[in-house]
# Entry
Amino acid sequence: MAVLVTGCGLFGDDGGDGGGSAGTPSPTSLAGLLNWVPDTAANRGKVVYYVNADVVRAGTTSASGEEDLRLLLDRSSNSIFMPTNVRDGILKPEWFGYAGFDTRNISAALEFGPPPDGVEVLAGDFDLTSLEAALRASPGGDSLTVDQTDGPAYLAVGEGEGLSFDEVSAIRRNGQPLIWAVGDGDLVWANSRQAVENAVAASGNTASTLAQNPQYRPIADILDQQQVAQATLLTGEATMRWQVAGMGETFTEGGGSTLFVVMVFETETAAAESVDAFRAHIENDRSSAVGAPWANTLTIQDVHADGRLVIATMASTDAGISISVAIREDNLLAF
# Structure
């Protein structure tokens, strides 16, 4: 997983801005998309990545996929996150011909799970007929299978075949199997049918997803209230003070962003005692990945405890920091 850069993801039809509530979150919000993530140790053990492209667009529509992609890159200082399979191929001219969609079809997205069974949920507007025609035109598309009963349609190319290097294309970077589930405007993408089916089953389950997890959900709700453009959620290692943390950001002009950090602690006392420690870490310590002081990049605007949560708001000169810290395994949250 990585940020989509040229320099250095169940969807409704409401066209919402990504905001949600603890009761019924918007299906494009972080809390809403967490409904696709089974609450398992494997999924909690990996970073969850989120992007809301509609927040970045801010109501602007584009006449072409190329124009939309340029808009997203320009407004994010080339730092917008895109799910791995989209990121790996979207810049190639043959993408649309093989995928049947472009970034205009994606309003929000989530990526989760351990490889090779990682899952990408694309929330937006996808036309099954266009998708099927494009897959048939792609390398290996003559083996396309389409299966639909009462639920979503399952489209598969190369299923059960491992890597087929003679079928490498913009949508199959290594010739890996491609499994899509398409329905109600959503596209779920993985290398295995089981991974896709698990996500689809989770979306209809009201009790065992990360959207109901008492540590993940409060973080998601707070980041949704801030209408973040992208975010990461991660579980703390044994050496961390906190149990689960989230980082989300909104982009600002000039290559910066506003970074929101939310951390869940075991007790209210632990949260309260961590406020000053986190502030001192940002003001005095250095990045373990690049060696520069965090204070060169981040300026604390507010940090406070709220029950078991510590919530921080910081001005950042580094757009994409909510994603890059997770990818680099930097020490921003290690204090």
Summary: The chain has two domains: 30-203, 236-328.
